C-alpha cells in the first residue's frame, strides 16, 4: 500500500511513517517544514520506500502531484500549538480549512480512503459547562467561546474539517475518518509551540524552573504517540470506521501540577515549579479548559483496542529522547547537515 502523509515530517507523522514502513508499506510525506523538520525523519533519508516532498497543502497542484499513485491519505498537516495559533491566526485558519479542502477534493477524485486529523479542542469547554458530563464522547456536545478569543479558531477549523470530511463521506461515498487526538506525546515532539510535556522536560534537564500556566490544577489525559499511530492504522483497516469520528486518547486525567512533579522526579532534578498566570503567558482574556477526558467506548468497540501505555512510559521515552538530543547538540558533537534532497523517491 502507498500512503500519502501530509505533515509527514511532523511529530505524529514521522512516527506513523515508521510504523507503516515497518509493515512494508510505501510512505510519501508532504510537509512544508513549518513546525515539522528534517530532523524527525533524518533516520529515513536512505529508506527505499520513503519519500519526502516539501510543499504546502494550500498549493493544490503540488499536493495532487504527490498524491498521484497513492492508495490512502493520512492528513496531519495543520497549523498546531496554542502559541502559534494565537500569534498567527490567519495562517491557522487558512491552512486548516483550505488544506483539508484540497485533501478531500483529491481523495474524492480518486476515491482514496482518508483519515483527517482533528483534535480534542473541538469539545471546547463542554466538560465545565454541560451538567452531568464526565467524559467527552464523539456524539456529545461541544461548547466554544466567543469568536473574539483566538484560541477557539483552531477548534472551529478542525470542526469544519470534520464536517467537510463527513459530508464527502455521506454525499459522495468517499471513505473518510475523522480522528480527534487528545494530548499526544512522545519522543521528537517539540516544546517550541507550547506543548506541555516536552517543555517541562526541557526545562528540568536544563536546570530551569518548570513553568506551569494557571494554578496547575487543570487536568489533561496523555497518550503515547506509538499508541496513537497504532490506532490510526487500525482505524484505516476497519471498514466500519469510515464515515465516522473517533476519539484517540486515554481516560486517565493527571493535573499539570502532578505532571510537573513527575517530570522533576523522573529527571532526577530538584528544579522549582513556578506558576505563571495565563494572562502573562497568552495575553489578556485567554480561556482554558479545566478538564479534557475522552470517552473511549466507541473506539474500543470499533477496533477492539485503545491506547494503554502509561504516563510513566511516556515520560521515560520523552526524557530519554531529550537527553539524547541534548548530547547531540552539545558543542563537542559533530553537526550533521541534511537537506530535503537526501530523501529517496518512493
Ligand atoms: N500532538 C497532539 O497532541 C495533537 C492533538 C490534537 C490534534 N493533533 C493534530 O495532529 C496533527 C499532527 O500534529 P503533530 O502533533 O504531529 O504536530 P506537528 O506540528 O509536529 O505536525 C504538523 C506537520 O504539518 C506540517 N505543516 C503545517 N502546515 C503545513 C502546510 N501548510 N503544508 C504542509 N505541511 C504543513 C508541519 O511542518 C508539521 O510537520 C495535526 O493536524 C494536529 O492538529 C495533534
Structural class: alpha/beta
CATH architecture: 3-Layer(aba) Sandwich
Helix content: 25-40%
Contiguous uncertain segments of 5+ residues: none
Bound molecules: nicotinamide-adenine-dinucleotide
Compact summary:
The protein is of the alpha/beta class. It contains 12 helices and 13 strands.
Write the layout of secondary structure elements.
Elements lengths: L1 E5 L4 H12 L3 E6 L18 E5 L5 H8 L4 E4 L6 H6 L1 H22 L3 E6 L6 H4 L21 H22 L3 E6 L2 E2 L10 H10 L4 E4 L5 E2 L2 E2 H12 L7 E5 L5 E2 H12 L5 E4 L1 H5 L14 H7 L7 H18 L18
Parallel strand pairs: 1-2, 1-4, 2-3, 4-5, 5-6, 6-11, 7-10, 8-13
Antiparallel strand pairs: 9-12
Helix pairs in contact: 1-8, 2-4, 4-6, 7-9, 7-12, 9-12
The protein binds nicotinamide-adenine-dinucleotide.
Describe this structure in words.
With 346 residues, the chain is α/β, with parallel strands linked by helices. It has one domain (2-331): NAD(P)-binding Rossmann-like Domain (Rossmann fold), CATH 3.40.50. The protein has 12 helices and 13 strands. The protein has a 7-stranded parallel beta sheet, sandwiched between helices. Strands 7-10 form a two-stranded parallel sheet. Helix 2 (60-67) crosses helix 4 (89-110), helix 4 packs parallel to helix 6 (151-172) and helix 9 crosses helix 12. The chain starts with a strand and ends in an 18-residue tail after the last helix. The chain binds nicotinamide-adenine-dinucleotide (NAD). Nicotinamide-adenine-dinucleotide is lined by residues 6-7, 9-13, 31-36, 56-58, 76-80, 95, 99, 117, 119, 181, 183-184.
Amino acid at each position: 500500500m502507498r500512503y500519502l502523509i501530509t505533515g509527514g515530517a511532523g511529530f505524529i507523522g514521522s512516527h506513523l511513517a515508521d510504523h507503516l514502513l515497518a509493515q512494508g508499506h510505501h510512505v510519501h510525506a508532504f510537509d512544508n517544514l513549518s513546525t515539522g523538520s528534517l530532523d524527525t525523519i533524518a533516520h529515513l533519508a536512505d529508506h527505499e520506500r520513503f519519500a519526502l516532498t516539501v510543499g504546502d497543502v494550500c498549493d493544490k497542484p503540488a499536493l495532487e502531484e504527490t498524491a498521484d499513485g497513492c492508495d490512502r491519505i493520512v492528513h496531519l498537516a495543520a497549523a498546531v500549538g496554542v502559541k502559534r495559533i494565537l500569534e498567527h491566526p490567519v495562517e491557522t485558519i487558512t491552512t486548516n480549512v483550505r488544506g483539508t479542502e484540497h485533501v478531500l477534493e483529491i481523495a474524492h477524485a480518486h476515491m482514496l480512503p482518508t483519515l483527517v486529523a482533528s483534535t480534542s479542542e473541538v469539545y471546547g469547554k463542554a466538560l465545565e459547562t454541560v451538567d452531568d458530563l464526565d467524559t467527552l464522547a464523539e456524539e456529545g456536545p461541544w461548547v466554544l467561546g466567543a469568536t473574539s478569543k483566538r484560541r477557539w479558531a483552531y477548534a472551529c477549523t478542525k470542526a469544519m474539517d470534520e464536517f467537510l470530511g463527513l459530508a464527502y463521506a455521506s454525499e459522495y461515498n468517499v471513505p473518510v475518518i475523522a480522528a480527534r487526538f487528545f494530548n499526544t506525546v512522545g519522543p521528537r515532539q517539540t516544546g517550541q509551540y507550547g506543548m506541555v510535556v516536552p517543555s517541562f522536560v526541557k526545562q528540568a534537564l536544563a536546570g530551569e524552573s518548570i513553568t506551569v500556566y494557571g494554578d496547575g490544577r487543570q487536568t489533561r489525559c496523555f497518550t503515547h504517540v506509538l499508541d496513537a499511530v497504532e490506532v490510526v492504522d487500525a482505524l484505516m483497516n476497519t471498514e466500519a470506521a469510515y464515515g465516522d469520528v473517533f476519539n484517540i486518547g486515554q481516560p486517565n486525567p493527571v493535573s499539570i501540577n502532578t505532571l510537573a512533579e513527575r517530570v522533576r522526579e523522573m529527571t532526577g532534578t530538584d528544579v522549582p515549579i513556578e506558576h505563571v498566570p495565563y494572562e502573562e503567558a497568552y495575553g489578556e482574556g485567554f480561556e482554558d479548559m479545566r478538564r479534557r477526558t475522552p470517552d473511549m467506548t466507541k473506539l474500543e468497540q470499533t477496533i477492539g483496542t485503545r491506547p494503554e501505555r502509561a504516563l510513566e512510559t511516556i515520560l521515560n521515552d520523552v526524557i530519554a529522547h531529550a537527553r539524547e538530543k541534548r548530547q547531540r547538540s552539545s558543542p563537542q558533537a559533530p553537526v550533521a547537515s541534511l537537506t530535503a534532497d537526501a530523501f529517496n523517491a518512493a
